[in-house]
Amino acid sequence: MTTLFEIIELPNGEIALRRADESGEPLVSIRFSKESLYFLNEAKIDIAKAMIEAGLEAAGEIQELKDEEPAIVTEDSHTVH
Fold first, then answer.
1. Counted domains in the chain
2. Which domain holds residue 37?
3. 2 secondary structure, DSSP code
4. Separation between Cα atoms, residue 59 and residue 78, nearest integer Å
5. Cβ neighbours of residue 14 under 8 Å, at least 6 residues apart?
6. pLDDT, position 28
7. Assessment of whether the complete model's pTM goes beyond 0.85
8. What pLDDT tens digit does each residue of the chain (81 aa) get?
9. Would you give the distance in Å from CA 50 to the centre of its chain?
10. Is 73 helix (H, G, I), strand (E, B) or coil?
11. How wide is the angle at C-alpha 18 spanned by C-alphas 41 and 32, nearest 5°?
12. What is the pLDDT of residue 69?
């Protein structure tokens, strides 16, 4: 089963990522300061989308590393990664 996500603008102006079939709390939200909004103008949705995509990509890469990297147990029972 594929989960669909959507990027939306909340009533308070934040940009959020949520599951398309849910209306609950967003998975991620981004709030831009007034100063940054001045520079972004109409591009705030595009910038937020790029930020969310980069975060999801990084999370996937981190998870892959965790799955591939075996823990090394030393004599004194500490786990080294």
1. 1
2. 5-80
3. P
4. 25
5. 29, 30, 31
6. 93
7. no
8. 778 889 999 999 999 999 988 778 899 999 999 999 999 988 999 999 999 999 989 988 898 888 776 666 666 555 555
9. 10
10. strand
11. 25
12. 64
Tokens 């591009």 appear where? 43
Place of tokens 């595009």: 46
Sign of CA dihedral 36, 14, 2, 56: positive
pLDDT value, residue 72: 63
Token pair of 32, please? Answer: 């831009």
pLDDT at residue 46, as a whole number: 94
Is the CB of residue 40 less than 8 Å from the CB of residue 32? yes
Q: Which two tokens stand for residue 79?
A: 């786990």
Q: What is the dihedral of CA 33, 17, 59, 51, to 10 degrees?
A: -40
